[in-house]
Write a structure and sequence with these properties.
The protein is of the alpha+beta class. The protein has 30 helices and 19 strands.
Length: 636
């Protein structure tokens, strides 16, 4: 796991390259390297910060050069040993034990055909000195980030994080549609970038640029082509178990200790138990919150289930970390960490628990992320099934239900009402057509409300975002409603939110977060399954739960769904109340015309009165406000 930065045919960026590399120091504190070469008449600069995981010796440092190929690489190739044997049979020889050298030789022998042979997460840049051709590539799911910029005059710049790319090209302005997307979803989708003129190399794509030529982006993997339901024979229960166990085994490959994030839920428990059995034990890290915060949020007690699992598996060494952060002090630095405005407070959880693990000598942590997207595990998947029935009810009845639910208080004296919050979210989208309903289930404004809080100034941007979502949703399998939702999640929610904040927050602590569910073999098995095997009646992740019965107690497998969240409403009502008042109503969001001041004031008042649940909206408006101030060079 590392950070990379570089440029092609932009020699004027050379004086800024050291500073850009410094901005990635947290991604790779173990080594750094920067090289400037001339190839094919072009000047190419490649920089690297290293977090040593596999073959931590000096000869494996980067930039890595061998026989005319020069590579900088962020990520891990879990099947590098298998590929090494294949390549040796083809005549390749190796001087290190690193997956970096395997990747370089794989490209030499197979070109872009090597990309689908890789089991892992990656973003890399590879230069062929003889031709002057530079190639960039990103893993199929977008686990590892790669930002690029292609200036109008030609050339290319790239970096693992936007903050480093902005050092190289500091004059970028805010992209209006991306900022509007952030308001809509509380994060920026993969096909948008918050800085105009910069973009994310799409997941499953590679880019080629040659001297004097334009950058050409090509797709090497597509879920639409490869994972549509019905294309493969569905795996049996035992075959699914074998696929999951194999993925965890591969994700354990490291020359440093590997730990796990354990919430006590199905996904993280399954990963932790499998890893503990394979390694003969594992350090698992669980979050706990202050009792008063947990009570107000009406949060389940994850620590209870994590202890239950550890008690039954002596190889699990459980570490409980109580999070009671000074969120007012932490929030500005968290905004800086995340690059783009992301309004999910779970990023704070990841950053703090990764920092605690790193303090105990852990460089690698396994996460259960990705199972909900692939196996239909979110409440919204259930809600879409309920909504289909709801839409068949008479309009007068649904109107009565909506008025009644919206009138209920979401919080009382010292305690939030979790079920009422869910009910109010449900009636906001249940009556809409399928695609609109699904978008609305994980966005925080309908188009009319978003236009209202922006006074209609973002109407074109809102329309463009609606079309983006519609095109993606329609690309999913038409004959399987559940897999269509999972397909949309795989391309929208997973890379845009979960993988993005997890990468930035974990790397801020110099910890590599690995996601065994987000693996080509697992994804292919998941999408070979019909939707009814995933959402069986009202049971989410049904087949995954059945598979887990080999390893986990039923109390954990079938416990109520618990999101990986934070006591957000307690923070907004107490810890951040003064900061909200001082920052939002008259801040840059309002002064620069992004949102309407009275609308923000109304949200604050309704939330504090317990009439509506605006905590997540207010949290995100705070992150967006602080991000805008940092862009303008202001102190938070």
């Amino acid at each position: 796991m590392c950070g990379i930065v570089g440029s092609f045919d932009l020699p004027n960026l050379a004086p800024r390259m050291e500073d850009a590399l410094d901005r990635l120091a947290h991604r790779g504190p173990d080594a750094r390297g920067l090289i400037r070469v001339e190839a094919g008449g072009s000047v190419v600069i490649l920089g690297h910060r290293r977090l040593s995981i596999i073959d931590p010796t000096g000869p494996a440092d980067q930039p890595f050069e061998k026989d005319g190929l020069l590579l900088v690489f962020n990520g891990e190739i879990y099947n590098h040993a298998d590929l090494r044997h294949e390549l040796e049979a083809l005549g390749a020889s190796f001087t290190t034990r690193s997956d970096t050298e395997v990747l370089l030789e794989a490209w030499r022998h197979w070109g872009h055909g090597s990309l689908l042979r890789l089991r892992g997460m990656f973003a890399f840049a590879l230069l062929d000195r003889r031709t002057g051709e530079l190639v960039l590539a990103r893993d199929p799911f977008g686990i590892k980030p790669l930002f690029i910029a292609r200036p109008p005059g030609g050339g290319l710049a790239f970096a693992s994080e936007l903050k480093a790319l902005r050092v190289l090209l500091p004059d970028g302005r805010i992209d209006e549609t991306a900022l509007t997307a952030s308001l809509l979803y509380l994060w920026v989708p993969e096909n948008r970038c918050i800085i105009a003129g910069m973009e994310k190399l799409p997941a499953g794509h590679w880019l080629r640029i040659a001297p004097g030529g334009r950058a050409d982006i090509r797709r090497y993997w597509s879920a639409a082509d490869d994972l549509a339901a019905g294309r493969r024979k569905p795996p049996t229960l035992d075959e699914l178990r074998d696929v999951l166990a194999d993925s965890v085994r591969r994700h354990m490959v490291a020359d440093v200790p590997v730990g796990s994030l354990l919430s006590g839920g199905l996904d993280s428990s399954l990963i932790t138990v499998l890893a503990a059995e394979m390694a003969g034990g594992i350090d698992a890290y669980t979050i706990a919150f202050r009792a008063e915060d947990q009570r107000f949020e009406a949060m389940p007690d994850d620590l209870h289930y994590a202890r239950m699992l550890a008690d039954r598996h002596p190889g699990i060494r459980l570490h409980s970390i109580e999070l009671a952060p000074d969120v007012a002090a932490l929030l500005p630095s968290m905004v800086e960490t995340l690059d783009e405005p992301i309004g999910d407070p779970a990023a704070i959880n990841v950053r703090l628990i990764c920092a605690a693990a790193r303090d105990r000598g852990i460089k690698v942590l396994l996460s259960g992320m990705g199972a909900d997207e692939l196996f239909a595990g979110y409440r919204r998947h259930q809600a879409m099934r309920v909504a289909a029935a709801y839409r068949r009810l008479p309009a007068p009845l649904t109107g009565l239900v909506e008025r009644a639910v919206k009138a209920l208080p979401v919080a009382g004296a010292g305690r939030g009402h979790r079920t009422i919050r869910w009910g109010q979210r449900f009636v906001e989208f249940a009556g809409l057509p399928e695609e609109d309903a699904y978008r609305r289930s994980y966005s925080y404004y309908d188009p009319e409300a978003l236009n209202a809080i922006t006074r209609g100034a973002r109407r074109e941007a809102v329309a463009a975002l609606m079309e983006d979502h519609r095109a993606l949703f329609d690309a999913g399998p038409a004959d399987d409603a559940v897999n269509r939702l999972c397909f949309t999640d795989l391309h929208m929610f997973l890379p845009g939110l979960n993988l993005a904040y997890s990468d930035r927050a974990s790397m801020a602590a110099s910890v590599e977060l690995r996601v065994p569910f987000v693996d080509l073999a697992v994804a292919r098995a998941a999408f070979a399954l019909p939707g009814h095997a995933k959402l069986a009646g009202w049971q989410t992740k049904a087949i995954l739960k059945r598979a887990a019965e080999r390893w986990l107690p039923r109390e954990i497998i079938y416990r109520p769904k618990a999101a990986f969240g934070a006591p957000l409403r307690a923070w907004i009502r107490r810890d951040l109340a003064e900061m909200v008042d001082d920052t939002l109503p008259g801040g840059r969001l309002v002064r620069d015309g992004w949102v309407d001041g009275p609308s923000i004031r109304r949200m604050i008042d309704e939330d504090r009165a317990g009439r509506r649940d605006h905590a997540l909206r207010l949290w995100h408006l705070m992150t967006l406000e602080l991000w805008l101030r940092s862009m303008a060079g202001e102190r938070p």
